[in-house]
Amino acid sequence: MSRKAIIVLLIFFGVFLFAVYKLIAGSRGNIAGLKVQSTPAASVYLDDELIGKTPYDQKHPPGEYVLKLIADENESSAVPWQGKVVLNPQVLTFVRREMGLSEVVSAGEIVTMEKISGGETQIAVFSSPDAAAVLLDGIDRGVTPLNLTISPGEHDVTVTSTGFIGRTVRVKTVESYKVTVNFNLAVAGDIVLPATPTPTDEAGATTAPEDEDGEPSDSGNFVTINDTPTGFLRVRFDATTSASEVARLNPGVKVPFIEEKSGWFKVEYETGKEGWISSRYAERTN
Prior knowledge:
Residues 217-286 form the SH3b domain. The chain has helices at residues 13-16, 18-25, and strands at residues 6-9, 32-39, 42-46, 49-53, 56-60, 63-71, 81-87, 92-98, 107-115, 122-128, 133-136, 139-143, 146-149, 153-160, 166-173, 177-184, 222-225, 233-236, 245-249, 254-261, 264-270, 273-278, 282-285.
């Protein structure tokens, strides 16, 4: 279980009981709930406006927002997090984030709900990394991304991926609504990282190795894409899983290397176009 350890997060009635929240919100369609929890405690920003600290539980107008969490000053070693959240009318959006020393050891989930037609009850499960195994109430139901029609009521949703710490949340589904759970998994603690750090420049980016004359060496000035569970590797705008996807690279493709941050390579994926890829599925090559 060491490579597939599971953190269980039970979201009880008081946290995610949408039916009760709808009664609190009343018939007004211009009310949405946002509940945010984090470890460590953090300041909460919505569209770059400071709105409070975690634990946070307030109502806002429905819409799409950029949510940002910045750890308190005495926990400044924890990396900030930001991502898009959608606040739907008369329901609650729940965000939990465990902020680690780097993006790859941070984790969390975003749970949202939206009304659907046809009277069905659905659950959609997404994850980073992709292709994580999904268990619903202990039964294997496939891999992410996954959309299922299920019965109303309480359900335990678990995602696991080799080399990552699995996570479980308990949600309450309601007829004519779809619950969406977006997991972010942290790398498991038994993953072996390089013992010798690569020299970095003042900006914190990894510099290319130098030859005997002090000039940058050609060794490792390319990145080759390895096999991935999805059959491709996402290129993102920034070195974070919450950044937007700008392209995809197939296994075996070799692209020019630009710089490196913890868990990420910056590459030139097209002539004149740069982006970030996860170093988990890529390696420096000549």
